[in-house]
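Response to reviewer comment R2.3. The reviewers asked that we include at least one raw input/output pair. We reproduce the pair for Thioredoxin reductase (NADPH) here without editing.
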Amino acid sequence: MEDRGGRGDGGVRGDGGVRGGRDECRREGAGGAGSVDVVVVGGGAAGLNAALVLARARRRVLVVDGGRPRNAPARQVHGFVSRDGMPPAELVAVGRREVEHYGGRVVADEVRVVRRADHVPLGPDAAAGGFEAELTGSVVRARRVIAATGLRDALPDLPGLRERWARDVLHCPYCHGWEVRDQRLGVLGWRPEAVHQALLVRRLSDDVVFFAQDGRDLDAPGRAKLAASGVRIVHGEVSGLVVEDDRLRGVRMADGTVVGRSALFVPPEFVPNDALLTGLGCRRDDNGLVRVDANGRTSVPGVWAVGNVVDPRAFVVAAAAAGAKAAVAVNADLVEADLAEDGLHVVEGAR
Ligand SMILES: Cc1cc2nc3c(=O)[nH]c(=O)nc-3n(C[C@H](O)[C@H](O)[C@H](O)COP(=O)(O)OP(=O)(O)OC[C@H]3O[C@@H](n4cnc5c(N)ncnc54)[C@H](O)[C@@H]3O)c2cc1C
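Raw output as returned:
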Protein backbone atom coordinates (compact mmCIF):
# COMPACT_ATOMS: atom_id res chain seq x y z
CA MET A 1 0.00 0.00 0.00
CA GLU A 2 1.29 3.42 -0.77
CA ASP A 3 2.11 5.84 1.96
CA ARG A 4 -0.84 8.15 2.33
CA GLY A 5 1.34 10.55 4.25
CA GLY A 6 -0.29 13.60 5.66
CA ARG A 7 2.63 15.97 5.41
CA GLY A 8 1.95 17.27 1.93
CA ASP A 9 1.22 20.96 1.69
CA GLY A 10 -2.39 20.24 0.97
CA GLY A 11 -2.22 22.87 -1.70
CA VAL A 12 -3.25 25.56 0.73
CA ARG A 13 -1.41 28.79 0.29
CA GLY A 14 0.33 30.42 3.18
CA ASP A 15 -1.84 33.50 2.74
CA GLY A 16 -4.88 31.55 3.82
CA GLY A 17 -6.28 30.84 0.37
CA VAL A 18 -7.17 27.38 -0.90
CA ARG A 19 -6.61 26.46 -4.48
CA GLY A 20 -9.73 25.02 -5.90
CA GLY A 21 -11.22 23.41 -8.96
CA ARG A 22 -11.65 19.80 -9.96
CA ASP A 23 -8.84 19.80 -12.51
CA GLU A 24 -6.40 21.25 -10.08
CA CYS A 25 -7.47 18.70 -7.55
CA ARG A 26 -6.68 15.89 -9.96
CA ARG A 27 -3.40 17.46 -10.95
CA GLU A 28 -2.24 17.75 -7.37
CA GLY A 29 -3.11 14.18 -6.61
CA ALA A 30 -2.52 12.91 -3.09
CA GLY A 31 -0.89 16.09 -1.88
CA GLY A 32 -3.52 18.23 -3.50
CA ALA A 33 -5.32 20.74 -1.62
CA GLY A 34 -8.51 20.45 -3.34
CA SER A 35 -8.53 16.89 -2.10
CA VAL A 36 -7.90 16.05 1.52
CA ASP A 37 -8.62 13.12 3.77
CA VAL A 38 -10.58 15.15 6.27
CA VAL A 39 -12.02 18.62 6.19
CA VAL A 40 -12.64 20.00 9.66
CA VAL A 41 -15.18 22.80 9.63
CA GLY A 42 -14.50 25.10 12.57
CA GLY A 43 -11.20 25.81 14.26
CA GLY A 44 -12.08 26.21 17.92
CA ALA A 45 -10.87 23.77 20.57
CA ALA A 46 -12.88 20.87 19.16
CA GLY A 47 -11.85 21.26 15.53
CA LEU A 48 -8.22 22.01 16.25
CA ASN A 49 -7.79 19.03 18.55
CA ALA A 50 -9.37 16.78 15.93
CA ALA A 51 -7.01 18.18 13.31
CA LEU A 52 -3.98 17.80 15.56
CA VAL A 53 -4.63 14.11 16.14
CA LEU A 54 -5.37 13.50 12.46
CA ALA A 55 -2.28 15.38 11.27
CA ARG A 56 -0.12 13.37 13.64
CA ALA A 57 -1.72 10.23 12.18
CA ARG A 58 -0.42 11.50 8.81
CA ARG A 59 -3.83 12.30 7.42
CA ARG A 60 -4.19 15.22 5.05
CA VAL A 61 -6.35 17.50 7.09
CA LEU A 62 -7.69 20.95 6.34
CA VAL A 63 -9.31 23.13 8.99
CA VAL A 64 -11.58 25.85 7.66
CA ASP A 65 -12.32 28.38 10.37
CA GLY A 66 -14.58 31.40 10.43
CA GLY A 67 -12.56 32.78 13.36
CA ARG A 68 -15.40 33.39 15.81
CA PRO A 69 -14.97 30.99 18.73
CA ARG A 70 -17.80 31.31 21.18
CA ASN A 71 -15.65 32.46 24.08
CA ALA A 72 -13.85 35.14 22.04
CA PRO A 73 -15.32 38.02 24.10
CA ALA A 74 -13.92 36.56 27.33
CA ARG A 75 -10.59 37.73 28.69
CA GLN A 76 -9.41 34.33 29.81
CA VAL A 77 -10.14 30.62 29.55
CA HIS A 78 -10.70 28.92 32.88
CA GLY A 79 -11.15 25.33 33.94
CA PHE A 80 -8.76 23.80 31.42
CA VAL A 81 -5.90 22.27 33.33
CA SER A 82 -2.54 23.65 32.17
CA ARG A 83 -4.34 26.39 30.19
CA ASP A 84 -6.16 28.17 33.01
CA GLY A 85 -6.04 31.93 32.50
CA MET A 86 -4.94 31.80 28.87
CA PRO A 87 -6.67 34.32 26.57
CA PRO A 88 -9.05 32.51 24.17
CA ALA A 89 -7.30 33.94 21.10
CA GLU A 90 -3.97 32.64 22.32
CA LEU A 91 -5.37 29.16 22.86
CA VAL A 92 -6.55 28.87 19.27
CA ALA A 93 -3.37 30.49 17.94
CA VAL A 94 -1.27 27.87 19.75
CA GLY A 95 -3.61 25.14 18.49
CA ARG A 96 -3.27 26.31 14.89
CA ARG A 97 0.51 26.31 15.15
CA GLU A 98 0.48 22.79 16.56
CA VAL A 99 -1.74 21.52 13.72
CA GLU A 100 0.48 23.18 11.14
CA HIS A 101 3.62 21.80 12.76
CA TYR A 102 2.46 18.33 11.72
CA GLY A 103 1.49 19.32 8.19
CA GLY A 104 -2.18 20.06 8.80
CA ARG A 105 -3.55 23.24 7.27
CA VAL A 106 -5.76 25.91 8.76
CA VAL A 107 -7.44 28.51 6.56
CA ALA A 108 -9.55 31.48 7.51
CA ASP A 109 -12.76 31.05 5.57
CA GLU A 110 -16.37 29.96 5.87
CA VAL A 111 -17.73 26.68 4.62
CA ARG A 112 -21.05 27.60 3.05
CA VAL A 113 -22.29 24.15 2.25
CA VAL A 114 -21.10 20.55 2.34
CA ARG A 115 -22.46 18.15 -0.25
CA ARG A 116 -22.21 14.43 -0.75
CA ALA A 117 -20.09 13.79 -3.80
CA ASP A 118 -20.26 10.08 -4.46
CA HIS A 119 -19.64 10.76 -8.12
CA VAL A 120 -16.55 12.87 -7.57
CA PRO A 121 -13.20 11.19 -8.15
CA LEU A 122 -11.14 12.17 -5.15
CA GLY A 123 -7.71 11.26 -6.44
CA PRO A 124 -5.72 8.07 -6.51
CA ASP A 125 -5.94 7.32 -2.81
CA ALA A 126 -9.44 8.40 -2.09
CA ALA A 127 -12.22 6.20 -0.87
CA ALA A 128 -15.18 5.78 -3.13
CA GLY A 129 -17.37 8.78 -2.67
CA GLY A 130 -16.80 11.67 -0.40
CA PHE A 131 -17.79 15.24 0.14
CA GLU A 132 -17.43 18.64 -1.39
CA ALA A 133 -17.10 21.62 0.92
CA GLU A 134 -17.83 24.92 -0.70
CA LEU A 135 -15.70 27.76 0.64
CA THR A 136 -15.66 31.38 -0.49
CA GLY A 137 -14.60 31.01 -4.09
CA SER A 138 -13.21 27.49 -3.90
CA VAL A 139 -14.25 23.90 -3.36
CA VAL A 140 -12.46 21.32 -1.22
CA ARG A 141 -13.07 17.63 -1.63
CA ALA A 142 -12.74 15.43 1.39
CA ARG A 143 -13.16 11.79 2.23
CA ARG A 144 -14.56 12.59 5.66
CA VAL A 145 -16.07 15.64 7.37
CA ILE A 146 -15.80 16.75 10.97
CA ALA A 147 -18.11 19.61 11.87
CA ALA A 148 -16.90 21.61 14.87
CA THR A 149 -18.90 24.74 14.19
CA GLY A 150 -19.93 25.59 17.74
CA LEU A 151 -23.08 27.46 18.69
CA ARG A 152 -24.56 30.91 19.05
CA ASP A 153 -25.65 32.24 22.44
CA ALA A 154 -29.07 33.88 22.10
CA LEU A 155 -29.69 36.43 24.85
CA PRO A 156 -32.85 38.19 25.99
CA ASP A 157 -33.61 41.44 24.27
CA LEU A 158 -32.55 43.74 27.10
CA PRO A 159 -30.84 47.06 26.38
CA GLY A 160 -27.09 46.97 27.04
CA LEU A 161 -26.94 43.24 27.82
CA ARG A 162 -24.99 42.13 24.76
CA GLU A 163 -22.43 44.92 25.26
CA ARG A 164 -21.61 43.63 28.77
CA TRP A 165 -21.50 39.96 27.66
CA ALA A 166 -18.43 38.14 29.05
CA ARG A 167 -17.52 41.22 31.09
CA ASP A 168 -20.02 41.49 33.93
CA VAL A 169 -22.93 39.77 32.20
CA LEU A 170 -21.93 36.13 32.51
CA HIS A 171 -23.42 32.74 31.86
CA CYS A 172 -21.17 30.09 33.35
CA PRO A 173 -20.37 29.92 37.06
CA TYR A 174 -17.57 27.46 36.30
CA CYS A 175 -15.93 29.67 33.66
CA HIS A 176 -16.11 33.03 35.41
CA GLY A 177 -17.65 32.53 38.83
CA TRP A 178 -14.41 32.61 40.76
CA GLU A 179 -13.62 36.04 39.36
CA VAL A 180 -16.82 37.52 40.84
CA ARG A 181 -16.87 35.60 44.12
CA ASP A 182 -18.21 37.41 47.17
CA GLN A 183 -19.68 40.18 45.02
CA ARG A 184 -23.30 41.30 44.71
CA LEU A 185 -24.55 38.89 42.08
CA GLY A 186 -27.77 38.56 40.13
CA VAL A 187 -29.40 35.87 38.00
CA LEU A 188 -31.91 36.76 35.31
CA GLY A 189 -34.90 34.43 35.44
CA TRP A 190 -35.84 34.35 31.80
CA ARG A 191 -35.44 30.63 31.18
CA PRO A 192 -36.29 27.54 33.30
CA GLU A 193 -32.62 26.67 33.88
CA ALA A 194 -32.09 30.01 35.62
CA VAL A 195 -33.13 28.51 38.96
CA HIS A 196 -30.42 25.88 38.78
CA GLN A 197 -27.96 28.52 37.72
CA ALA A 198 -28.90 30.64 40.74
CA LEU A 199 -28.24 27.69 43.04
CA LEU A 200 -24.75 27.34 41.53
CA VAL A 201 -24.12 31.07 41.75
CA ARG A 202 -25.16 31.02 45.40
CA ARG A 203 -22.01 29.01 46.10
CA LEU A 204 -19.97 32.00 44.97
CA SER A 205 -21.52 34.69 47.14
CA ASP A 206 -23.83 35.21 50.10
CA ASP A 207 -25.55 38.03 48.22
CA VAL A 208 -27.45 36.59 45.26
CA VAL A 209 -30.65 38.05 43.80
CA PHE A 210 -32.94 36.14 41.46
CA PHE A 211 -34.82 38.45 39.08
CA ALA A 212 -38.07 36.56 38.75
CA GLN A 213 -39.40 38.56 35.79
CA ASP A 214 -42.98 38.41 37.06
CA GLY A 215 -42.61 34.79 38.06
CA ARG A 216 -42.11 33.57 34.50
CA ASP A 217 -40.66 30.05 34.58
CA LEU A 218 -40.51 30.09 38.38
CA ASP A 219 -42.58 27.23 39.77
CA ALA A 220 -43.24 26.38 43.41
CA PRO A 221 -40.35 23.87 43.77
CA GLY A 222 -37.97 26.39 42.18
CA ARG A 223 -39.18 29.09 44.54
CA ALA A 224 -38.69 26.75 47.51
CA LYS A 225 -35.13 25.84 46.44
CA LEU A 226 -34.14 29.46 46.05
CA ALA A 227 -35.61 30.33 49.43
CA ALA A 228 -33.91 27.37 51.12
CA SER A 229 -30.58 28.41 49.60
CA GLY A 230 -30.84 32.00 50.73
CA VAL A 231 -31.30 33.47 47.26
CA ARG A 232 -33.40 36.65 47.41
CA ILE A 233 -36.20 36.82 44.84
CA VAL A 234 -36.95 40.20 43.28
CA HIS A 235 -40.29 40.43 41.46
CA GLY A 236 -41.21 42.68 38.56
CA GLU A 237 -39.81 43.16 35.06
CA VAL A 238 -36.17 44.02 34.46
CA SER A 239 -35.90 46.92 32.00
CA GLY A 240 -32.14 47.41 31.66
CA LEU A 241 -28.73 47.68 33.23
CA VAL A 242 -27.02 50.51 35.04
CA VAL A 243 -23.43 50.88 33.85
CA GLU A 244 -21.03 53.51 35.18
CA ASP A 245 -17.32 53.89 34.51
CA ASP A 246 -17.56 50.86 32.23
CA ARG A 247 -18.75 48.65 35.09
CA LEU A 248 -22.12 47.13 35.91
CA ARG A 249 -23.56 48.91 38.92
CA GLY A 250 -27.08 47.58 39.00
CA VAL A 251 -30.18 46.15 37.38
CA ARG A 252 -32.95 48.60 36.56
CA MET A 253 -36.54 47.49 37.11
CA ALA A 254 -39.50 48.63 35.02
CA ASP A 255 -40.77 50.72 37.96
CA GLY A 256 -37.50 52.67 37.97
CA THR A 257 -35.91 51.13 41.04
CA VAL A 258 -32.33 49.92 40.76
CA VAL A 259 -31.04 46.77 42.45
CA GLY A 260 -27.31 47.22 42.96
CA ARG A 261 -25.36 44.33 41.38
CA SER A 262 -21.82 44.02 40.08
CA ALA A 263 -22.39 40.93 37.91
CA LEU A 264 -25.48 39.40 36.32
CA PHE A 265 -25.70 35.76 35.27
CA VAL A 266 -27.90 35.08 32.26
CA PRO A 267 -28.42 31.55 30.95
CA PRO A 268 -28.33 31.85 27.16
CA GLU A 269 -30.42 29.91 24.73
CA PHE A 270 -28.03 27.67 22.84
CA VAL A 271 -28.46 27.79 19.06
CA PRO A 272 -26.16 25.21 17.44
CA ASN A 273 -24.48 26.17 14.16
CA ASP A 274 -25.62 22.91 12.59
CA ALA A 275 -26.99 23.96 9.19
CA LEU A 276 -24.16 22.14 7.38
CA LEU A 277 -25.03 18.94 9.22
CA THR A 278 -28.78 19.10 8.75
CA GLY A 279 -28.17 20.03 5.11
CA LEU A 280 -26.37 16.71 4.77
CA GLY A 281 -29.33 14.92 6.31
CA CYS A 282 -27.94 14.33 9.83
CA ARG A 283 -30.73 13.36 12.20
CA ARG A 284 -31.50 15.22 15.38
CA ASP A 285 -32.27 13.74 18.80
CA ASP A 286 -35.30 14.46 20.98
CA ASN A 287 -33.62 17.60 22.30
CA GLY A 288 -33.22 18.99 18.81
CA LEU A 289 -29.46 18.45 18.74
CA VAL A 290 -27.77 16.60 15.91
CA ARG A 291 -27.44 13.04 17.17
CA VAL A 292 -23.93 11.62 17.56
CA ASP A 293 -22.45 8.52 19.14
CA ALA A 294 -19.78 8.62 21.85
CA ASN A 295 -17.14 9.38 19.23
CA GLY A 296 -19.07 12.07 17.38
CA ARG A 297 -20.32 9.95 14.48
CA THR A 298 -23.57 11.32 13.06
CA SER A 299 -26.33 9.37 11.32
CA VAL A 300 -24.73 10.18 7.94
CA PRO A 301 -21.79 7.91 7.05
CA GLY A 302 -18.55 9.85 6.80
CA VAL A 303 -19.76 12.81 8.86
CA TRP A 304 -18.72 13.51 12.45
CA ALA A 305 -19.69 16.40 14.71
CA VAL A 306 -17.95 17.51 17.89
CA GLY A 307 -17.91 20.25 20.50
CA ASN A 308 -20.65 22.76 21.17
CA VAL A 309 -22.48 22.16 17.90
CA VAL A 310 -23.73 18.87 19.33
CA ASP A 311 -22.93 19.33 23.03
CA PRO A 312 -23.79 22.87 24.15
CA ARG A 313 -22.51 22.27 27.68
CA ALA A 314 -19.03 21.12 26.65
CA PHE A 315 -16.33 23.32 28.15
CA VAL A 316 -13.20 24.01 26.14
CA VAL A 317 -11.45 20.97 27.57
CA ALA A 318 -14.45 18.73 26.82
CA ALA A 319 -14.77 20.11 23.28
CA ALA A 320 -11.08 19.46 22.69
CA ALA A 321 -11.44 15.92 24.05
CA ALA A 322 -14.42 15.25 21.78
CA GLY A 323 -12.35 16.41 18.83
CA ALA A 324 -9.54 14.03 19.74
CA LYS A 325 -11.94 11.09 20.12
CA ALA A 326 -13.59 11.78 16.78
CA ALA A 327 -10.20 12.01 15.09
CA VAL A 328 -9.30 8.54 16.33
CA ALA A 329 -12.62 7.19 15.03
CA VAL A 330 -12.24 8.92 11.66
CA ASN A 331 -8.70 7.62 11.24
CA ALA A 332 -9.87 4.08 12.03
CA ASP A 333 -12.69 4.46 9.52
CA LEU A 334 -10.24 5.61 6.86
CA VAL A 335 -7.88 2.73 7.61
CA GLU A 336 -10.73 0.33 6.83
CA ALA A 337 -11.70 2.32 3.74
CA ASP A 338 -8.08 2.22 2.53
CA LEU A 339 -8.05 -1.57 2.82
CA ALA A 340 -11.36 -1.89 1.01
CA GLU A 341 -10.08 0.32 -1.77
CA ASP A 342 -6.98 -1.77 -2.10
CA GLY A 343 -9.25 -4.69 -2.80
CA LEU A 344 -8.77 -6.53 0.45
CA HIS A 345 -11.79 -8.66 1.13
CA VAL A 346 -11.58 -10.18 4.56
CA VAL A 347 -12.83 -13.75 4.49
CA GLU A 348 -15.62 -14.24 6.97
CA GLY A 349 -14.26 -15.98 10.08
CA ALA A 350 -10.68 -14.88 9.41
CA ARG A 351 -11.03 -11.69 11.42
C1 LIG B 1 -18.36 34.26 27.02
C2 LIG B 1 -17.97 32.83 27.15
C3 LIG B 1 -16.90 32.47 27.96
C4 LIG B 1 -16.53 31.14 28.08
N1 LIG B 1 -15.50 30.82 28.91
C5 LIG B 1 -15.12 29.54 29.04
C6 LIG B 1 -14.08 29.18 29.94
O1 LIG B 1 -13.49 30.02 30.63
N2 LIG B 1 -13.75 27.86 30.02
C7 LIG B 1 -14.38 26.91 29.29
O2 LIG B 1 -14.01 25.75 29.39
N3 LIG B 1 -15.38 27.23 28.44
C8 LIG B 1 -15.76 28.52 28.29
N4 LIG B 1 -16.77 28.83 27.44
C9 LIG B 1 -17.33 27.80 26.58
C10 LIG B 1 -16.44 27.67 25.33
O3 LIG B 1 -16.61 28.83 24.55
C11 LIG B 1 -16.79 26.42 24.55
O4 LIG B 1 -16.60 25.30 25.39
C12 LIG B 1 -15.90 26.24 23.33
O5 LIG B 1 -15.82 27.42 22.58
C13 LIG B 1 -16.41 25.10 22.47
O6 LIG B 1 -15.49 24.86 21.45
P1 LIG B 1 -15.96 24.49 19.97
O7 LIG B 1 -14.70 24.20 19.24
O8 LIG B 1 -17.01 23.46 20.01
O9 LIG B 1 -16.65 25.80 19.38
P2 LIG B 1 -16.05 27.25 19.14
O10 LIG B 1 -14.91 27.52 20.04
O11 LIG B 1 -17.19 28.19 19.21
O12 LIG B 1 -15.46 27.19 17.67
C14 LIG B 1 -16.29 27.07 16.55
C15 LIG B 1 -15.58 27.67 15.37
O13 LIG B 1 -16.25 27.27 14.17
C16 LIG B 1 -16.28 28.37 13.29
N5 LIG B 1 -17.35 28.16 12.32
C17 LIG B 1 -18.69 28.08 12.53
N6 LIG B 1 -19.33 27.83 11.39
C18 LIG B 1 -18.38 27.76 10.43
C19 LIG B 1 -18.40 27.56 9.02
N7 LIG B 1 -19.56 27.35 8.37
N8 LIG B 1 -17.24 27.55 8.34
C20 LIG B 1 -16.06 27.77 8.96
N9 LIG B 1 -15.98 27.96 10.30
C21 LIG B 1 -17.11 27.96 11.02
C22 LIG B 1 -16.48 29.58 14.20
O14 LIG B 1 -16.10 30.78 13.55
C23 LIG B 1 -15.56 29.19 15.37
O15 LIG B 1 -14.25 29.69 15.18
C24 LIG B 1 -17.20 30.15 27.34
C25 LIG B 1 -18.29 30.51 26.53
C26 LIG B 1 -18.67 31.82 26.43
C27 LIG B 1 -19.85 32.18 25.60
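The chain has two domains: 22-151+270-341, 156-267. The two ends are 20 Å apart (CA to CA). Further pairs are available on request from the corresponding author.
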